[in-house]
Design goal:
Number of domains: 1
Radius of gyration: 21 Å
CATH superfamily: MFS general substrate transporter like domains
Structural class: mainly alpha
Helix content: over 70%
Order of helices and strands: HHHHHHHHHHHHHHHHHHHHH
CATH architecture: Up-down Bundle
Largest sheet: none
Distance between the termini: 28 Å
Number of strands: 0
Length: 425
Amino acid sequence: MRQASSAAVRSPAAWLLTLAIVLIALNLRGPIVATAPVLGQMSADLGLTAVVAGLLTSIPVLCFALASPLASSLIVKVGAERAVSIGLAGVLLGTVLRALGTSSWLYVGTIVIGIAITVGNVVLPVIIRRDYTPERAGFVTGIYTSALNVGSMITSLATAPIASVVGWPAALVGWGLLAVLAVAVWAVAVGPRVALGVGARAGSGAVDAGGASSADVMTGGIDVVEAAAHEADAEARRRPLLRRWTTWGLTLAFAGQAFAYYGLTAWMPTLLGDEIGLTREAAGASSSVFQIMAVVGALGVPLLALRWRPSAVIALIGVLWTAMPLGLFFAPEHWLIWSIFGGAAQGGGITIIFIVIVRMATTGDDARRLSALVQGGGYAIASLGPLAIGGLHDASGGWELPMVGIFVSVLVLGVSGVLSARRVR
């Protein structure tokens, strides 16, 4: 069994599954941040105030919170593979609706995108836990979260230049091609019939080229019957998730991370334009540094997590994260330095939280429900980020008070994260 499993790990199907995860992740943040570089143009065309415009980023994050339980139920009903396909189809549909050129369709499309992305948010950590050994799961989680930020970087960098040529509606709808590419590779990786749920049992593993399910590809040589018995025993002994204080603490840490991330993502191009006089295109390109540096944190954190306790990693991330709001408060002209520290920290922040979720979970079902609870509760708070930062800016007339809000949310991440993960090895 161990030899067969090792051979499967080296098979092309395993790398194809990882590639599919990367392409899916490109669609789980990019569509949200694509509006930030053209927010001024959209507001002028559609008559949006700063607070209302902030809803374009807040709405998807609120959907993450409200739709997480529904996404979890969908995964149980149709299976992980088909849930991914449904999520990608929803991203494509929402992208088209959002670009129809009216404020009504703009918000309808944004809601559809938010619900669709929620499915991907919940299901991908479940797939990673199921289909990879614990040693590989941390690395693949890093790749996954890196791709989230690469998607954000690409849209932050390219949306404004494209919009200057073809207009913001066409610039936004063009990103739907990434969803088409992702669903095509996903169908190849797991098999078209499995991806569409045709003749496949709900929840069954993806099929590789050798006929083995993806759930068997990376089991690390553990006998299936023995693993099932172990998981059943662990399920019987564990306390309900809602009665674990670590669940609530991890949710609060996730909220602090996401609040700071989405608050900065929504308003950083505008901040750079106001504070140092960058043009819309230049501000969008500059803010992409914050996104791309997250790749460093997302890939570096799994390596640290193999040697350090997750609580120590979270403490380090919290310290680096604070450089972003403090730097923009005192010296916004040095935004590049602060973006390097803050970008690496935010990429590492979401990665370590997902790693803790995987390590805390005792079964696949536990991972699914813990992922849904942490993300649902965390995103409920984080959805206020863009709205709150825009409101603080309108109330104060500057960007100092909004940066105080970001600083406080980062402190919540650090303190709550350290306390929640201190017993996780």
